[in-house]
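Re: [ENG-882] Designed sequences occasionally contain unexpected residues at chain ends

Forwarding the minimal case from QA. Structure tokens:
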């Protein structure tokens, strides 16, 4: 007996044509009835079958999306996939199954979904914290080998060991669709590292790969280093928390000297020390592509920072973001601040745009040295100085440098309790004179904080709108200058006459007309001249707005800036993010 809308077919057809609905009581104490017409008068046998099928498939689909695979039988997946044939839009795009302790039955269902790849169209699979290992993963990886839609796979915080990695390696050799694979916090050892590295030599699609918090050690690092010498697609790799030591660091650094595609490298928590920092500094002198470098929690100290800074002090350095948190940098008499100051003040280097110094004992002396560096610097956009033992002397030095600085956009100073009310007041006064910084993170943990807080917020808001106005005026001058200096094919006689009239004017008058567009004088004289010279060159036609502003202002800053930590890469600073 087939069912319809949850009822046996015979019962469904025998139901009365109306149902009575009686609430217990109304607000006036009276009952009310509402007639609901039966669906049966509108449905044929085929109609009932289609409605029941639709409801059933919708329930299965919702269980899949909600991670309730245990409620589904294998034949349910087959029927669902069959019903999707001919569907023009993707059904599943992202499946997040975190901390569900997926069993064998559930992984079988997921594997069936992967086999119907062109129909189910799964792009992202997040399977973290599921204690996955053994046979369930073997079934899953076998299905993934033939899948052609999944681009991102996250298996972090599971029980993957070298046995499971053997199956994953086969996937990476065959599957050329995956772009991101995350294996953080598993049980992968040296043999697993060798298998993965060998597979990545053959893989031509993977761009982002994380094996942090595993057990690969220096021997596993050797295998990955050999891979990095030949791999042409990986842009992002995370080796954090693998106890690479000096031996592992050395081979990775040798690979960095020849690799030309890697953009982001994380070596945090690897017991590198100052000797490892020296090796990294040497590699940075030769590498011209790496943009993001993470060295947190490696105890490199002041001497290690000196090596890193020397590695960055050359015109071909591409580093954008430098993470140095928890490294024992600074302290009274320390040279950490001095090393960074020299780097920031260096005219021969491309200074990083963001530096993270969280939980380093920079102190007042370190701040005084550091402030000398970014006193005139226009390249550094963001510096994070949380938990850095900064007091009144240190904040005084920073405040004085901000008056002259025209580059810094974001300054983080929270959890430095010794700054106090006087330090906040000094910073507020300095920001009234600064016209570029748009973000400051502080702790207002003193009695009379409201006045300083309001003053700082007013300065940041003013700077934000001022920067918007600068970029808008620069663009207006560019458009007007191109109209005046280039001979565009006229569509109408009037526009042609207007163009000829402009050309008849002396250059000085045209220049003054363009200058007049900046009614509030938000741009400097040299900036306006730079814009006009840019507009006069025909080879600049079609240039992106970001490229134009970079050339017009020599530096270009985003209207908003979020300092992203892991995961990140150079695309974080593309125009789509920065505008």
């Amino acid at each position: 007996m087939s069912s319809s809308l949850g009822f046996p077919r015979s019962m469904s057809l025998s139901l009365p044509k109306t149902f009575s609905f009686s609430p217990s009581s109304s607000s006036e104490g009276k009952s009310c009835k509402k007639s609901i017409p039966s669906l049966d008068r509108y449905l044929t046998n085929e109609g009932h079958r289609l409605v029941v099928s639709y409801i059933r498939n919708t329930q299965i689909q919702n269980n899949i999306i909600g991670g309730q695979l245990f409620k589904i039988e294998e034949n349910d997946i087959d029927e669902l996939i069959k019903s999707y044939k001919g569907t023009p839009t993707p059904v599943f795009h992202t499946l997040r199954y975190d901390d569900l302790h997926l069993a064998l039955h559930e992984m079988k269902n997921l594997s069936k979904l992967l086999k119907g790849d062109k129909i189910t169209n799964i792009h992202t699979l997040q399977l973290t914290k599921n204690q996955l290992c053994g046979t369930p993963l073997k079934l899953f990886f076998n299905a993934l080998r033939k899948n052609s839609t999944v681009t991102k796979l996250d298996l972090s915080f599971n029980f993957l060991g070298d046995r499971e990695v053997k199956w994953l390696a086969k996937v990476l050799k065959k599957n050329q669709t995956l772009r991101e694979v995350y294996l953080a916090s598993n049980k992968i050892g040296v043999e697993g590292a060798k298998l993965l590295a060998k597979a990545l030599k053959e893989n031509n699609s993977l761009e982002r790969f994380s094996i942090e918090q595993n057990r690969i050690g220096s021997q596993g690092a050797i295998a990955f280093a050999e891979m990095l010498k030949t791999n042409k697609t990986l842009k992002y790799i995370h080796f954090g928390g693998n106890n690479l030591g000096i031996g592992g660091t050395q081979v990775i650094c040798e690979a960095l000297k020849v690799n030309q595609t890697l953009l982001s490298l994380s070596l945090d928590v690897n017991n590198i020390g100052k000797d490892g920092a020296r090796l990294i500094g040497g590699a940075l002198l030769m590498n011209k592509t790496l943009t993001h470098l993470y060295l947190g929690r490696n105890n490199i100290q002041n001497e290690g920072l000196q090596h890193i800074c020397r590695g960055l002090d050359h015109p071909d350095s591409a580093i954008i973001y430098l993470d140095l948190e928890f490294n024992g940098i600074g302290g009274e008499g320390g040279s950490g601040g001095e090393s960074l100051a020299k780097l920031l003040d260096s005219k021969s280097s491309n200074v990083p745009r963001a530096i993270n110094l969280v939980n380093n004992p920079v102190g007042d002396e370190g701040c005084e040295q550091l402030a000398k560096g970014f006193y005139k610097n226009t390249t550094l956009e963001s510096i994070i100085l949380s938990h850095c033992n900064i007091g009144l002397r240190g904040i005084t030095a920073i405040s004085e440098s901000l008056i002259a600085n025209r580059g810094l956009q974001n300054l983080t100073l929270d959890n430095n309790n010794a700054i106090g009310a006087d330090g906040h007041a000094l910073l507020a006064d300095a920001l009234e004179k600064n016209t570029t910084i748009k973000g400051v993170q502080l702790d207002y943990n003193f009695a009379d904080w409201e006045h300083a807080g309001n003053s700082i917020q007013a300065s940041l808001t003013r700077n934000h709108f001022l920067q918007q106005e600068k970029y808008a005026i620069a663009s207006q001058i560019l458009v007007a200058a191109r109209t005046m200096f280039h001979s565009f094919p006229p569509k109408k006689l009037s526009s042609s006459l207007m163009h000829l009239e402009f050309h008849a004017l002396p250059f000085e008058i045209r220049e003054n007309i363009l200058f007049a567009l900046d009614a509030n004088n938000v741009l400097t004289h040299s900036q306006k001249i730079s814009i006009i010279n840019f507009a006069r060159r025909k080879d600049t036609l079609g240039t992106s707005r970001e490229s134009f502003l970079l050339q017009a202002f020599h530096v270009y800053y985003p209207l908003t800036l979020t300092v992203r930590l892991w995961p990140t890469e150079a695309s974080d600073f593309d125009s789509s993010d920065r505008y």
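QA comment: On inspection the terminal residues look reasonable. The first helix runs from residue 9 to 14. Proposing we downgrade this to a documentation issue.
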